[in-house]
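dude i think i finally got it to work??
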Amino acid sequence: METIRPIAIFILFHLFLANVSLATETSKVRWQVVPDSNYTIDQIVQQDYFSFQHFDTIYPNRHSQYWVRVSIHHPEGDNFYLSASPNINNKWYFQVSDGRWKKISTGLLVPSDTRDHRVKAEGIISDSLICYIHMDVRKMDNITSFLPTIKVINETIRDSKEKYILLFSTISAIILLIYIVNFLIDYYMLKESTHVYYLMVLIGGLMYVVSYHSVIDLIINLRFVKVIDASLTQIYSADISYIINRLSIMIIFFGIIQLSNTFLDLKNALPLWNKILDYYAYFFVGINGLSLTITLLTSFPVDMYLISISNIMLILAMILVLIGGIFCLKKDKNNAILFLTGHLVPFLLIIVTSVIVEIYAFEKTIAYTIIPYLSVLSLPMSLSIVLAIRVRNVKNALTKNLLYTQQLGIENERMRYDKEIENLENENIKNQLELEKMHRENLELKIDLQNRQLLTSAMQNQKKDTIIHHISQEVSKISKNEEASSTAPLKAIRLLMLNLKTAEANWHSFKEHFEKIHPDFFEKLKREYPELTPNEVRLSAYLQLNLTNKEIAVLQNIEPSSVKRAKIRLKQKLNKSENS
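look at this
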């Protein structure tokens, strides 16, 4: 992009020199007009057959075609070009050296390889020239009357001007195309909405460049013209260049407004100002689009009357945008300063262009020729600078975000590792709990097994004691017989029974095995409940083994109901002891 700016400056300098060389023509031009009635050039030329009436006003609503006899006195003696207005569909006739009349067609409806639709004068004798024009004014039937105008321009001046205008327009278009491609690439890479409006402004600028001096006529061979107004000295018409030029102004205007809103983020920074600019942009485009449509579809020249209003609206819009940028200095200082410094020059040039076009309309002055191009070319140049700075800021922000993201990623990775370690620790704790649970279950199973073994042993001892008790009763019955009681066998049986009466010993054996399974049970029970009787202590041990009433009754050789009552008394005593 840096190489484009010197080229643009070079072109501007040469265009300035070209326009400075323009001189005021000293040629004297006279003309006479006559309505056409299918005359040939030979009939028009023959003075004895036909003579021109001396009036110079054309009435399109009376006749659709006219003949114009042109007499030119050109004392400079150089070659020159001619143009006639209206220049819609004219046929020029020049008498060449062999006496024949050469016809040259020109006009907005005639295909041409020239931009300005001028014709080079031929058949100049000394410093005078007489030629004829056949004017077709059928496109002007909505105009009551007007004066035709004939203009003469020196060949050297005209060719020099055309050369520089075409060169400048071409280079400007190429510059804008390069910028458009560059912005498209940037938009593809950055996906920033601001670039959309940059592109809109650039496309509008390209349309303006190729239409401002009707260069588009050399590119598009589409002939269209509509005469929308006329005065005694000037004809106003709308052709392809005019339409594209008007559309380009709407596109540039809308793009600048939306670009400003997006760049400054006015929707969040200044919501009210954002709405004002939005409505203003839509109103400008709507009113200009509607007026252009009405002008092209009807005979009422609305668009021509609104040009001045449009220029004023354009100036006001640039002022509003700059004011919005100033207001944003309080919200986002860096962004607002970047916007104002980057867009101030093109916005001021747009204001100057609107003023110049309004003041010097239809006057081909240096300012009228140069300033509009300057304003259009200043847009991409300033935009590229602003965008470069903005892209750099975005890249810096992206770099910071990338570093932050990387740090965040590292932090997340560390947190993930910590989480995995925590999960492993939780899994380890869970496994330990499972092991403890299994150990506890195994211990409970072991204790339960020991309890069952202890219960079985106690039941066997109780059964043995019961049998001994029954034998003792039978022996007692026999002992009542004194003779039998003194026999040696009976004494031996009594001695054996005495040895077998081990109920108390069985209890001590049971207690010893019980304490192995439930250590400190009896000691703790006596310490907390010292008022318990031996039978209640024994009952507590049986309850600790989760024995049923029936099993306890068998062990104590009592009825189950007695066990139930004993349990109630034990519970009452324990509760009473706890409450005290």
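The two ends are 101 Å apart (CA to CA).
im so relieved honestly
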